[in-house]
Amino acid sequence: MSPPRSTTRSAAGPVRRPGGRTAEVRRRVLDAVRAHLVEYGYDALGIDAVAERSGVHRTTVYRRWRDVGGLLADVLAEATGDDWRPPDTGSLEGDLLALNSEVYAALTAEPPLTTALIAASFRSAPAADALRAFWADRYERCAVVVDRAVRRGELPPGCDPRRLLVAATAPLYHELLLLRTTPAAQLAARAARDATLAARAGAFTHSDPGDVGPGRRQV
Amino acid sequence: MSPPRSTTRSAAGPVRRPGGRTAEVRRRVLDAVRAHLVEYGYDALGIDAVAERSGVHRTTVYRRWRDVGGLLADVLAEATGDDWRPPDTGSLEGDLLALNSEVYAALTAEPPLTTALIAASFRSAPAADALRAFWADRYERCAVVVDRAVRRGELPPGCDPRRLLVAATAPLYHELLLLRTTPAAQLAARAARDATLAARAGAFTHSDPGDVGPGRRQV
Questions:
Q1: What is the pLDDT of residue B211?
Q2: pLDDT tens digits along A20-44
Q3: Candidates 3.40.605.10, 3.40.50.150, 1.10.1130.10, 1.10.10.60; CATH matching A17-66
Q4: Looking at the domain A92-200, which fold is it?
Q5: By the 8 A CB rule, do A154 and A147 touch?
Q6: Is B167 within 8 Å of A166 when comparing Cβ atoms?
Q7: Name one Pfam family in it (chains A, B) (predicted).
Q8: Count of A–B CB contacts within 8 Å?
């Protein structure tokens, strides 16, 4: 996911970019959504504000994106649609460290676009759906990290890629987003190492110890 | 953390409860906050709505809690102040499973009070501070789970309790709160087992592989 980009214009008018006018309109509108979200928050987002900021006519914005949920969903859909692939560092721990470094950078970035998008997902069902789709896609693309580790003989077969990847990344989201711990770069390396040790010890395999009944409640 | 409780009244007037009138007022107000939050959401919370629902005069509510942030903070402070201790099941995996079953129950409860409180923490700094304090307190109380495992010889000394506990619980928050995965009770058992395997394999110790530079951005 890219940070908000500014719209480049020459003195003679809009710069031609690949994808033509429709792509250019989308780029300007989504840039405006990102910038407005991190500057003023979810409550200030609206078709009118985005139209004004992007310089795109409000009728066009309304026709194509309908409402704030549609705009946020498209910001996330755009992020999913890129050609991102997980880096191949030659080891499971190295690959997980590379992934976690990206997650860490996103969760501590200024402006805090990722955090703002996640916060918005608690207020908008389309944004929540788009965020879920974005993550599902990322976990699918990252499954190759686990496949490679199995092929190298680093891991036993039967390791569930999504479960390992969630275990490797979840502590970062938990610390930085929910517990709001002061960021410390070693969080990324620690979670990568802990998940690697767990996987090598046979965690994340499909054998279940059985269902769990409900317990006492806790936040 | 308890679910919203209804206020009990006899025909003759308010029932006497331990703690006297001040405690009774707090109980009624916090009950109203919980019920209103899960029924109508953060946007509908306000001093007036809470005063009306609780039957406590708005001046009293305003004087004691000031605003919505103060009300949410006190809901969380009340949850922290209870006499909760982690169950002692005799094994690390059993203890983590008991904890995770509580987290699972809280995150899938109806009405979804925990989820609503976490969502509110993205909108209110006092609620965010109170949530952080609540979790810090829980992790501290749960450190005994790790101490016991070390004493039993299940784990090597040097295991960081908070890091192990975050690793055990974070996948549940990640799946149920952020990824909005369809709840499956085995999530609790799987995360408990994975964290136990990791801890036995030497994870969550203080040796760091070094700092990590920032990587590419990703949601």
A1: 35
A2: 899 999 999 999 999 999 999 888 9
A3: 1.10.10.60
A4: Tetracycline Repressor; domain 2 (1.10.357)
A5: no
A6: no
A7: TetR_N
A8: 213
